[in-house]
């Protein structure tokens, strides 16, 4: 009984709970907005936190910022199992969700989190010049938006072009369907406006790896959106973009895509 109590007490420690895992530590629930900003919004204070999973004894490590999916309406920060103990830092981010907030709050939170990483990752053995941004579905959409529309990160004096790479997993390149829903637009009506990564196609964006499931199994049009974005980036002469379609996999294609993400990180480091 005493042993069980100790385990429970361990899990009920403060939000800065540190977990050792064979050379790694996990620090949970770090706020990425300032204390003064947190004081203005209880939901922001509750939700806008991130976890940092990092190797204890290695420095200048590349970092993968991971945004969870869930249609901008649900989901929670987590570190994909395939990224554990892979020689990289992983930062898992929570952001505010619809219907408690509306666009562009989701994108603003994503930018604030990435800016926090760029400015603070050295404390966790990372290198600010090796920050990669990824995520699945809505998370992939957020990764693309903050990398392509530079004004979100510029608010924090971070140049989006300094990011080492962007790896959206099955992310929208048109305006997100939840943002369209907020305007009363059906999910089958595509829109390309300032809230679409496609709207911000440009040559000098960071390197991109686009990954989707099989075009016949994916959410409607998701592969084709990414294929069009890929083509337009090639037309503007972006020098480093790839598109990969995972045969046999539908929208839930995170696990088989993780090795592609890690290979991309390794390639960009060389």
List the helices and strands and how they pair.
Blueprint: H1 2-11, E1 18-20, E2 24-31, H2 35-38, H3 42-47, E3 49-55, E4 61-67, E5 89-93, H4 105-120, E6 126-136, H5 138-148, H6 151-154, E7 165-169, H7 177-182, E8 208-213, H8 222-235, E9 241-246, H9 254-269
Parallel strand pairs: 4-5, 4-6, 6-7, 7-8, 8-9
Antiparallel strand pairs: 1-2, 2-3, 3-5
Helix pairs in contact: 4-5
How is this structure best described in words?
The protein is α/β, with parallel strands linked by helices and 270 residues long. It has one domain: 3-Layer(aba) Sandwich (Rossmann fold), CATH 3.40.50.1820. Helix content is 32%, strand content 21%. Strands 1-2-3-5-4-6-7-8-9 form a 9-stranded mixed sheet, sandwiched between helices. Strand 1 and strand 2 form a beta hairpin. Helix 4 packs across helix 5. The longest helix has 16 residues. It is globular, with a radius of gyration of 18 Å. The chain starts with a helix and ends with a helix. The N terminus is likely disordered.
Class per helix and strand makeup: alpha/beta
DSSP E strands, number: 9
Calculate the mean pLDDT score and round it. Answer: 93
Residue runs with pLDDT of under 50 for 5 or more positions? 1-20
**Could you say what the CATH topology is called?**
Rossmann fold
The ordered string of helix (H) and strand (E) elements is HEEHHEEEHEHHEHEHEH
């Amino acid at each position: 009984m005493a042993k069980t109590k100790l385990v429970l007490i361990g899990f009920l420690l403060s939000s800065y709970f540190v977990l050792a895992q064979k050379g790694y530590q996990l620090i949970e629930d770090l706020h990425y907005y300032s204390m003064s900003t947190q004081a203005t919004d209880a939901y922001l204070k509750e939700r806008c936190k991130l976890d940092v999973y990092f190797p204890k004894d290695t420095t200048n490590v590349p970092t993968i910022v991971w945004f969870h999916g869930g249609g901008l309406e649900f989901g929670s920060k987590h570190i994909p199992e395939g990224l554990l103990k892979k020689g990289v830092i992983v930062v898992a981010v929570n952001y505010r969700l619809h219907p408690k907030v509306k666009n562009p709050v989701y994108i603003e939170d994503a930018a604030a989190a990435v800016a926090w990483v760029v400015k603070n990752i050295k404390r966790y053995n990372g290198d600010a010049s090796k920050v990669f941004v990824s995520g699945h579905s809505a998370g992939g959409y957020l990764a693309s938006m903050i990398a392509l529309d530079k004004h979100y990160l510029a608010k924090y004096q971070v140049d989006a072009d300094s990011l080492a790479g962007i790896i959206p997993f099955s992310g929208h390149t048109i305006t997100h369907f939840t943002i369209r829903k907020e305007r009363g637009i059906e999910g089958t009506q595509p829109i390309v406006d300032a809230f679409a990564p496609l709207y911000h196609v440009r040559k000098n964006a960071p390197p991109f790896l686009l990954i989707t499931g099989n075009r016949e199994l994916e959410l409607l049009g998701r592969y084709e959106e990414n294929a069009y974005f890929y083509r337009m980036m090639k037309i503007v002469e972006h020098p480093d973009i790839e598109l990969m379609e995972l045969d046999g996999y539908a929208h839930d294609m995170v696990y088989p895509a993780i090795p592609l993400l890690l290979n991309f990180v390794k390639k960009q480091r060389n």
